[in-house]
Amino acid sequence: MALVLNEDQQLLKDSAKNFCQQNSPLSVLRRLRDSKDEAGFDSAIWQQMLELGWAGMAIPEAYGGFDFGYGGLGIVLEESGRTLTSSPLISTVLLGATAINEIGSDSQKQQLLPKIVAGELLVSLALDEDISHGPNRIKTTAVKNGDLFTIDGAKTFVLDGHVADKFIVVTRTSGESSDAHGISLFLVDANTAGITVTRTLMVDNRNSAKVEFSNVSVPASALLGEEDNGFSALDFVLDIARIGLAAEMLGSIQEVFDRIIEYLKQREQFGVLIGSFQGLQHRAANMYSEIELCKSVVRAALGALDNKEAERKEIAELASIAKAKLSEVFFLVSNEGVQMHGGIGMTDEFDIGFFIKRARVAQQYLGDAAFHRDRYASLKNF
């Protein structure tokens, strides 16, 4: 498995890097935060991303996409992570489109995926119900009544939930609250009667919402995948998303490290550059080593997603390795970023603080390091 980019991927990386630096620098995130923007992302920038084909990066050509693979989407996410770009790339493209593509019927794919590629549809995954990630801890119920299902329950930390046109709702149609069996997924219009959406202002300014379902009625045709047997397919979708999120985190980590090195080369203390202090050199060397490991982990995981011969168990293992490792290293590097910049690193006027906030949220989303270490151990039958 190649851990380096091929020529096409390198061209994409250069293009994505230039776009994000020129059109979506950190000043855009600051503006969105300070203005308390209703959407939480710049629609003009999102439209430019759509024109570049980013929304269709991993979607098959048969459904309007470009079939460049998750390796391509991962590169885009990595570069967007460098500037903390606010967009529906995670919610709609990485999670929503992947779920529809992997689980949906051909009719659902034909109807929805081209709209996602064109930017006509925003989709959010309504999954977690507790403060910690637990894809099988589902209490939201979907009760069948003839040709209809009635959904009741509440979801938290729904990315872009306040602007979503559709929700992919993870429900329980049978079994106990922590069983893997009995989980079913439904495509639900956001304007359906009985749905209440409350926007949550996250510390890192990533869009999120609490979504409540009260006696929400949906047709049987809204079922995404098999009734009662949705967990296996959902878990695979989540693994793809975990790898994509790890790629975004990698971009953020590299950006913080680059800023640290630049500061060490410029800041003087006691009449000398602080980069000459051996203690700081050791810390920088440690970060560099950890980041190189992160690159290899992310490249290997993305490569497995695009490898037709890769088994799902292998992908699951790589997803948990990537999410656990990137969570730990993002924690380390974001902390070092603030500490090595000293007092100025603690101020809101200085950009480094945005990364430590993003790190804290990204570490938790779709499972923190502890969750994935435990999951990896289970996958290995430890």
Give the gist of this structure.
With 382 residues, this protein is an alpha+beta fold. Helices cover 51% and strands 15% of the residues.
**First-residue to last-residue Cα separation:** 26 Å
Q: CATH-wise, what's the superfamily of the largest domain? A: Butyryl-CoA Dehydrogenase, subunit A, domain 3
Order of helices and strands: HHHHHHEEEEEEEEHEEHHHH
CATH topology of the largest domain: the name is: Butyryl-CoA Dehydrogenase, subunit A, domain 3
Q: Tell me the strand order in the biggest sheet.
A: 1-4-5-8
Describe the biggest sheet?
A: 4 strands, mixed
Low-confidence sequence ranges: none
**Helix content, binned percent:** 40-55%
Quickly count the domains: 3
Number of helices: 11
Backbone structural class: alpha+beta
Second CATH tier, the architecture of the largest domain: Up-down Bundle
Question: What form results from the Cα inertia axes?
Answer: globular
The percent range for strand residues is 5-15%
CATH class of the largest domain: Mainly Alpha
Rg over CA atoms, rounded to whole Å, is: 21 Å
Task: List its traits.
single chain, 382 residues, alpha+beta, Butyryl-Coa Dehydrogenase, subunit A, domain 1, Butyryl-CoA Dehydrogenase, subunit A, domain 2, Butyryl-CoA Dehydrogenase, subunit A, domain 3, four-stranded mixed beta sheet, four-stranded antiparallel beta sheet, globular
